[in-house]
Amino acid sequence: MTQNNKIHFTKMQGAGNDYIYVDSSLYNISDPSDAAIVWSDRHKGIGADGLVLIGRPDETNGEEAAADFTMRIFNADGSEARMCGNASRCIGKYVYEKGLTEKTEVRLQTLSGVKLLKLDVNDGQVKSVTVDMGEPCLADSRLFHLRGDLPEGTFVSMGNPHYVIFTDFINRVAELGPTLERHSSFPERCNIELAKKVCEESEGKAIIRTRVWERGSGITMACGTGACATAVAAMLTGRAGRKSSIVMDGGTLDIEWNEDDNHVYLTGPAEFCFEGEVQTD
What phi and psi values does residue 219 have, to the nearest 5 degrees? Predict the structure, then answer.
C-alpha cells in the first residue's frame, strides 16, 4: 500500500451522479468520512456527491469471500451509505477497464449485501452496466411509524430507505427534501423522490420523470436506488408495469422489477470524468 501523502483518484459519473473513486488496496484513507466532506466540496475540493472506496474482499470472511470487490460509499456530508446503484455501475466499468478483472459478471460486496454487476462490453469498453439490486423491501412498521403530516407516498427500501411521492410539482424537491429527509417518521433519515408519470407505457415501459433529494448529499443529478424505488412505487400504485424508464436530471435509468425472482434490475451508463491526485496531511 502506498505510504506517500498524495492519493490518486478517479472522478466518475452515472447519469450525472458523480463520485470520487479511490482504490483502497493502494491507498490508506484513515478518515474517509472527513475526506468525503472535504473532497466533495464543489468550490474548495474536487467536487462530487461523495467518496467511494474500492477494495478487495477478505477471503476468510464469509459473504465477502464470495465477492470480487468491495465498496464503501460516503456521502458529501460524511455519512456512510449502505448502497448506491450508480456508484456500483461505475465500479463495474472501473475494475474492467483498468484491468483489475476480465470478468463481465462482477460480484460487489456492499453494506446491503453482495450485488451482481453484468457488464455490456464492446471493443474493450463497458457501454452499460446492469445491477441486480435484489428484492425491494416495503414499509416495515418495526422501522418507523408514518405520521399524519407526511405527504402521501410509498416507502421502499432498496438497501437504503426511500420515500416516493407522486406529484405534479416535482420541482419542489429543494423545498421539501431537507424537511422530509429528517421527518420524524424516518429515524435513520430517508431519501426523497418526487415523481411524475409523463408518458403512457411505450414498448412495455412507462416513462417517469423523477427528482431526488439524497440522504446526506441533497439534490443530486440521479440516484440509482431512487430510480429503482420510484419504479417499484409506480407499479404498486398502478402507474406502471414491471418496466420503467426513470428520467432524472442527469439522464435516464432503465428499471425492471422481474416477476420471476422478484429482483429489481437497474441498467444505465457509467463514465470516466477525469483523474488526478489529492494532497493529504
Answer: -65, 130
The Cα 263–Cα 269 span in angstroms is 20
Half-sphere CA count of 176, side-chain side, radius 13 A: 21
Of the listed ranges 7-21, 50-64, 155-169, 172-186, the one predicted with least confidence: 50-64
Query: Mind giving me the DSSP string for 185-218?
Result: T-TT--EEEEEEEEEEEETTEEEEEEEEEETTTE
d(CA 182, CA 204): 36
In the block, residue with C-alpha cell 470520487: 20
From 84, 90, 190, 228, the catalytic residue: 84
Taking CA atoms, 54 is separated from 9, 23, 57, 130, 174, in Å, by 11, 5, 10, 18, 31
Whether 84 is catalytic is: yes
**CB within 8 Å of 224: residues ≥ 6 apart:** 14, 15, 17, 84, 85, 86, 87, 88, 89, 131, 133, 253, 266, 268
**DSSP string covering 146-182:** --TTSPS-EEEESSSEEEEEE-S-GGGHHHHHHHHHT
Distance CA 35, CA 43 (A): 15
Q: Computed from CA positions of residues 132, 136, 142, 147, in that sequence, does the dihedral angle turn out positive or negative?
A: positive
DSSP state of 28: -
d(Cα 249, Cα 269) in Å, to the nearest integer? 14
pLDDT tens for each residue of 234-255: 999 999 999 999 999 999 999 9
* Residue 90 annotated to the active site: no
- Given 199, 223, 228, 273, the catalytic residue: 223
**What is d(CA 187, CA 95) in angstroms, rounded to the nearest whole number?**
35
